Amino acid sequence: MSSDVTPLTPPIPVPDVPGEDAGAHGLPDRSELSLRDKLIVDASAWADIGLRTAVASMVAAAMVPSVLTTAVGRDQSRRERERLAFYAELAAERDPARSFPAPTALPRISSRRANPLAERVARGVVENVAFHSSFEAVNPAMRDSWNGLALNNTARFQHWRHEDGPRPTLCVIHGFMGSAYLFNGLFFALPWFYRSGYDVVLYTLPFHGRRAEKYSPFSGYGIFSHGMSGFAEAMAQAVHDFRSVVDYLEFTGVDRIALTGLSLGGYTSALLAAVEPRLQAVIPNVPVVSVDAEIRDWFPANMVLQAGQLLGRVDHGDFTSATAYHSPLNYPPLVAKDRRLIITGLGDRLAPPEQSEMLWHHWDRCALHWFPGNHILHVSQPTYLRRMTAFLRGYMF
Fold first, then answer.
1. What is the signed CA dihedral for 110, 114, 119, 120, rounded to 10 degrees?
2. Which of 139, 155, 263, 380 fits a disulfide with 241 by CB distance 3.0 to 4.6 angstroms?
């Protein structure tokens, strides 16, 4: 790796307030923090509550059409209950190979050079890549409707590659509504990783960016607008299409792939760690890992969901069993313990640190790093960039 660059000053300036790795008992209690860290955590948490309410309002808006349809249509309500029962049965088997079938054919990709700004940021070759998703809805009852989602069924990623490649590749999965390549490139300090020798892949989740269906009011709207059965299929497609990306990278000669993701991308990354055996390392960043536990605090989305369950006569236990289908907590990880690193913010209220601790326990108390910031303001990001760099170096180079 190159030694003439440093991650200490990421492109998006943030305060450098050191975080730490968790101890044997997990994340620190508030009483164990310094006064400075307490003040930062408290201020970050208050700020995050406002952001959480805004994001939850967007989620609620996306959920309303499916809730109303289920509420007024007896047949639709019955179909949704049957679909949720299908995912609950799959989840009960705890078999990732059955829950998330692997792609059976190499994707036929098309690529074009990205705009000059992207190449200026990366200081290298940047291509926007697309391919037809070979995903078929896991639930047969969803296949006809899913096949009609033309824009969503074109999978996309941006590829920062060296001309003397292939190189070890760091893959990044964005959060809900946050699919812009430029933002993610800067937020994750990817120019630094690129200049350190990595190729970089910025993967687009279903229904985001150019995968959003026509008339979608915002990027990511389709994730929640097809009901909870639609969310299950969206997660299944996210896993499937990413594995197609891995197939493509492997075909081009890449033999070392690491994965990180933020928020919903952290959820997807943690799930992929239980499904995709070719990952050298995985680093979920401020991840959600239990939708059922998380959405309880997401006002007003929690109220819309509760109304939908009541009007659609969906038992909460059945809902919980169905959401386990795509939870990383439902499957054992395939990535070795010493190649798992979780990053969390103590002031995060969108994906609170309790979510990361749940994953930490499930992952046999692997490496867990905390910073005293929230979901977006990653106070001490330079510290965890150093931590990521040291963590990845032995596996990737």
1. 180
2. 155
Task: Report residues of the chain scoring pLDDT below 70.
Answer: 1-16, 70-74, 311-312
- Structural contact between residues 143 and 153, judged by C-beta atoms closer than 8 angstroms: no
Under 8 Å CB-to-CB from 166, ≥6 apart: which residues? 199, 249, 252, 253, 254
The CA-CA-CA angle for residues 37, 43, 44, to 5°, reads 85
What is the per-residue pLDDT across 264-303, written as a single tens digit (0 to 9) for each? 999 999 999 999 999 999 999 999 999 888 887 888 888 8
